[in-house]
Structures are given as C-alpha cells and as structure tokens.
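User: As part of a screening pipeline, I want to sanity-check one entry by hand. Below is the sequence and the SMILES for adenosine-5'-triphosphate. Please return the complex as structure tokens so I can compare it with the automated output.
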Amino acid sequence: MLAVVVDQVSKAYRRGARALDSVSLEVEEGEVVAVLGPNGAGKTTLARIIATLLAPTGGRVFLMGRDVARSQADVRRILGYVPQGATAPPESTGEEYLAMVATLHGVPASERRARIRELLRWLELAPAGSHLARTYSGGMRRRLDLAAALLHRPPVLIFDEPTTGLDPSSRRHIWNHIKELVRQNGTTLLLTTHYLEEADALADRLVILDRGKVAVSGRPEALKAALGGDRVRLAVPSAQLPAVREALAAGWFDDIPAPTIRGLPDGTTQLEWTLPAGARAAARLTEALHGAAVSVLGIFVYPPSLDDVFQAHTGRTLQEAQEQAIASGMAPEEGRGKAGRPPQRAA
Ligand SMILES: Nc1ncnc2c1ncn2[C@@H]1O[C@H](COP(=O)(O)OP(=O)(O)OP(=O)(O)O)[C@@H](O)[C@H]1O
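Assistant: Here is the complex for your manual check:
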C-alpha cells in the first residue's frame, strides 16, 4: 500500500515566490524516502502540507489512502511530524513536555508514563528527562522532538531536516535511532534534508527537489548508475596538453569520449571523463601517456556520488545551490538558527 501520495501539489505564498510547483511523489509503506534539496527548495513547505499544517494552492495529498484535506483528525493519528526547530518550551523538563504532548495526542492516561519512560530510555534521554529543556544539547533536543512525535505510535513519520546544525557525532547518533525505528517498527519515513550524506545513509529512495520542482527521483544506486559510470580525472602539466591530445588521438581511445578540460592557475590541466569501467580506463590511459613521455601528475577514479546526481539534474552542485541560497538570504549559515520562524509544536 502507498503510505503517502503527493499528487501535483503546488504552493504559492501570498507574499513570495511559488514555493512548490506541481510536485508529485509516493512513499510505500515501510519505505524511507528522502526529499533532498538546498535551502529554499520547498522541503519544509512540502512537509507542512503533508502534515496538514498548511493548505496547498493546488493538488492533493493522501496518507494511507485518506485525503489529508478531508480527514485531518484521522491523519494526525496516523502521522508523526518532527518540524524544524526546537519544539520543547525551554523552561519545561523533557518529561513535562512529553506529558503535555501525550495529552494533546489523546494517549490514554494509564499509558502515558510508560510510553514516556520507554521513549526516553530508547533515545538515551532517561537521566535528562527531569532536566529543563534549555539545558539540552542540540542533539538531545532533536531526540526529544523525535520522542514527542512518536508518543502516539504513528505508522508514518515526517522528519523535517533531522540533523541540521548538529555536529557529526550527534548526527550519526540520530541516524542510528532512525534506522532502528524503521527496522524494528517498520515505520514509513519521509525525511527532508540538504545533506547528501544523510540522504545516502538513510534513504531507500530519493526525491531531489530544486526551486519547488522535482528534478529527479529514484533509488540512490540507480540514479548514480544512470550517470554512465565513474569519474576519471587526470592531471598533467599544462605544457604537455598537446602531447596528451596526440596520445589520445593515436587511435587507442576510440571508445572513450572527449574529456572536459580545465586549466588551473598552478600550471596544471585537468582532464575529466565519465566512463563505465573507470579503473580499467585509467590504467589504459596511464600506460599510453607514459608511452608518449607525458608526466602524469595524478589520475583519480571516483565512483559517482549523489552530488554528481544532483549536479547532472540541476546544473549545479548542492554546495553551490546552498551558497546561492545563503547569498539570497534564503538560508542561515550552517550552525546558526533559522531566523524569523517560530518553533512549531509537533502535530
Ligand atoms: N510563510 C512564507 N511566506 C512567504 N514565502 C515563504 C514562506 N515560507 C517559505 N517561503 C518561501 O518559499 C520557498 C520555499 O521555502 P521552504 O522553507 O519550504 O524551503 P526549504 O527547502 O524547506 O528550505 P529550508 O531548508 O531553509 O527550510 C522559499 O523561497 C521561501 O522563502
């Protein structure tokens, strides 16, 4: 069964650009789908629409077969939503906050304490449960947010940017909990992220969102394979480029397409190919260039990465897209809070 169906959803804010433009995606039950895109791509807008916190301008969303616009109460029972930004009031303890959320979700009074204890233990927050939320580290706060979204045991979870701004070890910690949740409970998960490694580490399937549109979607391995092979990068002294061209034209390399060539200010030139069997091609190239007395400064073979996939479908690297977003004021620099957006309560 399809757990989430987003069907041609668009959103235009009253003051602002079109945040989503006819976005469609599906998440199967038990699947982990990552919506990957730079800041401003429309990820939060999409997550909030699925979580019934925002109405789309066009299109429809179905959750476990229910139209979210028509059955909001039902949907909130099925769905756990972890929004961006800390949700717990700083002057509440973790336990007090979870008790409040459990009440809002209608968790039976007789089960509240046990569920809170179970979640705090699982998320390694048990000793901190009685401490004020303002004393929590970023990673602890994120785990408390996750606990709040899981109190009513939803089969579908939407996690908006699980680890933005966290250090690598806290990030890995959250990833492990997410993997465990999916493995042990079979939870369906739709997460948004602007981290390539996060999408690579967690997702069964990726949806690349760029400027409000789906650029491409598919399994990470299939998307990488579709690029046509490995990247092979050769570095030679720029003065020897004519000799390299001659060696390549000597007839040995009919099966190798023309490289992209980039001269660098340090007097070296890089030639780059995308080739099906990169390591074998690199060995052949090295041998031929040695034969032509070219001094090879380096030859590198890279398996295609998700960034190559992003670049192939959006025309720029994710890093470049992030930098553009920061320059246009759409994104805070890494590590800083997101200005102008109040904390939201888990639905
Ligand atoms: N309330 C709003 N009013 C007007 N424009 C908005 C509003 N919220 C978001 N936008 C705009 O919609 C676009 C998509 O924003 P959104 O927050 O969904 O992107 P995002 O991919 O989640 O980015 P981030 O990772 O920074 O949250 C951006 O251009 C943003 O400026």
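Points to compare against the pipeline: Residues 335-347 have pLDDT under 50 and may be disordered. The radius of gyration is 24 Å.
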